[in-house]
Amino acid sequence: MDFASTAIALCLALVLATFVVRHHARRMCGKEKRYHPVAETVVHQLINFRRVHHYMTELSCKYKTYRMLDLSRSAVYTADPANVEYVLKTNFTNYGKGSYLYNILSDALGDGIFAVDGQKWRHQRKESSSEFSAKVVRDFSSAVFKTNAVKLACLIYKAATCNQAIDIQDLFMKSTLDSIIKIMLGIELDSMSGTNEEARLKLSRILKITYL
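RESULT FIELD:
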């Protein structure tokens, strides 16, 4: 596609997005319910795709809570701590995933706690609550971090005694990665003992096995 065709396509997309926003705003203005402002549309997300994280951050700083429109529905985004607490804690039961998200998530997560609602969610939470109690997680995490801290200290000591230059930031990152993989997946990545390429290959194999 040449430059002229691309420019025409972008103009048409912006015209369509503007029409959708105005039509939706007119439809909502006569109703008594209060709705969060319409910030942009999914077309604007596509236009800003190369900087989408910065783009969404800018919208969050401007609106705190806002809606993004597409042709069939609107999605609500929020960066307001009070709203997050209301959805995830105060009135959690009123905000289920619904069939739309379940159909997307169930392919990878099945009927796990992150995909289901209602009775299935309560059952999953009850089964996992004992395994993820604060004390269990704290004790296990502490043991993992202490073990990897000892490995890190040994590598630094060895480099110091041999007068060898090391990238300390890289070692810190690898130590953190090893600890997180061990805590989350129960697998020893041991990236501190190998090269970056070896760590990447091992991590890719672990992730492939985990999600198969």
